[in-house]
Amino acid sequence: MRKIAESTVRRLSLYLRFLEDFEEQGIDTVSSDALATRGHTTSAQVRKDLSFFGSFGKRGLGYSVPELASRIRDILGLGRAYRVAVIGAGNLGAALVHFSGFDRHGFHVVSLYDSDPKKIGTERNGLAVRDQKDLEADMAEELADIAIIVTPASVAQELVDRLVGAGVKAFLNFAPVQLKVPDDVVVKTVSLALELEALSYGLRNR
Amino acid sequence: MRKIAESTVRRLSLYLRFLEDFEEQGIDTVSSDALATRGHTTSAQVRKDLSFFGSFGKRGLGYSVPELASRIRDILGLGRAYRVAVIGAGNLGAALVHFSGFDRHGFHVVSLYDSDPKKIGTERNGLAVRDQKDLEADMAEELADIAIIVTPASVAQELVDRLVGAGVKAFLNFAPVQLKVPDDVVVKTVSLALELEALSYGLRNR
DNA sequence: CTATGTGAATGATTTCACAGCT
DNA sequence: AGCTGTGAAATCATTCACATAG
Questions:
Q1: Fewer Cβ neighbours under 10 Å: the N or C end of chain B?
Q2: Distance (Å) from CA A68 to C1' C22?
Q3: At the topology level of CATH, where does A82-191 sit?
Q4: Tens digit of each residue's pLDDT (9 = 90 or more) over A50-100
């Protein structure tokens, strides 16, 4: 399959959110223009994004809301449940354990890890904190599909290496480091400092 | 000044992080190639990014680490302190209150708001939870430079409207909505659901 | 008549490649 | 000799515009 731009994939996620809103409101047909308006883009962009994956609309009419939603879920691979492990039981890690919106598309946080003996064995937001030492053993038993890294930067790479070794293929990284992983492993990094600095730059010229 | 691509600004933030690492290690000269290797990009990219803002290196030698760091801080507008208000004292909001790394570049969380009477007046991570009703009054007294929105999607836009009215010019948004703001206001949205869906897509083709 | 799907055109970003300093 | 700074070339992403289907 042709290589699809990151930006296209992100817009598809957005469209899906809008389609779900429309579905809730009982709207069952939508035009590329309606989706575009909702997402601060253009109708041509919407149609082009979709065209990489097939043709899902009816000319002269638009798209069936439930059908297009279903197609986008297929494209994004959302037709299954994902087991998510959160690595790091600090404030942010604990907050992510039940961040509403995770479950919505099948992302279930199933475990939470830390290395601090004071935390291990306690519960954070209803989930037991497990010992980081047991990562490999636990993963061998029941592999996580996705690991969310919420540890200090200094230990992030080492933990990722261990998780990669254990078979984890996808990471959402909140540690302010550039992670190195093999080609067959996917990483998305969310850097709050970086977002704030982009805001700072944005504030400069006004 | 010429319009600079978002991607360039984000890479500059990255370079800055690397330069600070180098500085800590006592390295005082660095080549575009060294920065590139560290940031998963190319030396030409690094030089091009910098060239939009001036020429900071010495041919045949490279860049002075402290000087380049200082130049990038200037470019990004980091030569000042930013007052940050966190709107929403849920798990995530509380976690952000002292997310290490915020202070590092001059982003200081100075206030935390919620609308839940049970929370108002209590402390979360050492910061008093203020009443959302008082937003306007508080902002009139001491305006925040940046507001971080960590509320349910349903109230995010309304709060942003109020904050924009009160004079806030920059938002970091964690609510899963597309915020509408005037042209002179900057917004960056971090959508965890969207990142996870991008991971899901990434997992599909392997 | 309306709105999709898509090549072709435009615009933006990245990479190349080399002249010019140190 | 080594590495920057930068036009020119190549690649990638978006927008245009229209033929086509309902």
A1: N
A2: 61
A3: Rossmann fold (3.40.50)
A4: 999 999 999 999 999 999 999 999 999 999 999 999 999 999 999 999 786
